[in-house]
Amino acid sequence: GSVSQPALHHASGPVAVIHPDATPQQGPTSRVVVGIDGSPSSLEALGWALEEARLRGGELVVVHAWHMPYSGVYPYVGDAFDEAVFRRAADETVDQALRDVGVSADDPSVKRRLVHQPPAKAVLDAAADADLVVVGARGLGGFAGMLLGSVSHHISHHAPCPVVVTRTPGEARPAAR
Any residues with CB less than 8 A from the CB of 136 and at least 6 apart, and which? Predict the structure, then answer.
């Protein structure tokens, strides 16, 4: 909207977006979904989401979307891309991110969701029964001039529950004059 988008683009701290039609989930356990890609911004989101899940006494669902490189222009590559290699790399990204925020690999309150699909779709699918979604303002994609990543922008518009967009310290941009 006209207020939430400038706030998302220029805020110096986390911003929550709550759509009027967002329905809180009813159930015994709160679910917080966080999308990560291994970037500093996503680690900030993971730390924030972890703390929120702990405060709520709920579970944290860590979503990481991965993809196979496009090889259509290189027909001789054929089956050289082994899906298992990319899946392991995705798993290692999540392992490292969890270590970076001090989470044990066997923490029962943390669930992993590694999927082979576009990142925004992966997070929105996981958010279908969530109470909150947390994403970083900018990840690994896009180009440096963008103020809000396309994934976080898409999620802030389409999530069925409240969304918190975090920033790494010092990342906020001044408003355009």
Answer: 35, 36, 39, 40, 41, 42, 43, 44, 45, 149, 152, 165, 166, 167, 168
